Amino acid sequence: MTRKLLRALVFVSLAFWFLLVVVPVVWLVYSSFKTNEAIFADPWRPPLSPAEVSVDNYARAWSKSHVGGYFLNSVVTVSSALFGTLLLSAMAAYGLARLRVKGRRVIYYLFVAGMIVPTALTLAPLFELLRSLSLLNSLTGLALVYVAFSIPFSLLMLYGFFSSLPEEVREAAIVDGATEWQTFWHVFLPMARPGLVTVAIFNFLGLWNEYLLALVTLIEPEKQTLQLGIANMVVSMNYRSDWGTLLATMVLAMLPVLVLYAALHKRVVEGMILGAVKG
User: SS3 of 55, please?
Assistant: First the structure.
């Protein structure tokens, strides 16, 4: 009886959580195809006929609201940051996990300690640093900032993967004449692919939705990312009510995250299981 009651409670909790997450997303999607008049007339009613469905909101969002430019800026910045983060984190994790470097545990903990530093405390020195390096108001500067903030978490994840891989493989590669770099690049890096995919997805979710660092780093509107563009649209809503365009913009911002996770969610679960950090 107790087990059945527990299962019923778990089922009800999951059903409630499902409704709490899915219903707003469904409402957001079908409302993005409605006109402003239809949204104000009945916000919850979906378009019931093809005549009530319109893609004008997406056209206005992409062109008149400059979402296309914001979207491209986010793609360029996040993809560059992901590449740099994965490369540097994988190299550091391999070195700390496999090479007999003196003080490697101290170095590892120093890297991981970067996760406890509040982002807000770094904004003022970060602004001055980027300005002194002529990287302020630059997508390159923002990408480098993203790499710096993403490395601690990525190193923590990848360290567990490289620690769990068999040492015999590395010894066999060295016996065959491979250098340490060749062993890392051609042997261990392909074996750690589940971990790399997991780290890439988690970093993508965080960086794609990042707002505060982009707000401090980017000044000119044409260089701003998608999240800043959405914030600008929300501010402009005080002067003109174009909720359809705003909802369409939010769908466009949400779409890459949903597509990526739907395509690779099995890899995420596999990566989390295989990447348990060894003590």
Answer: coil
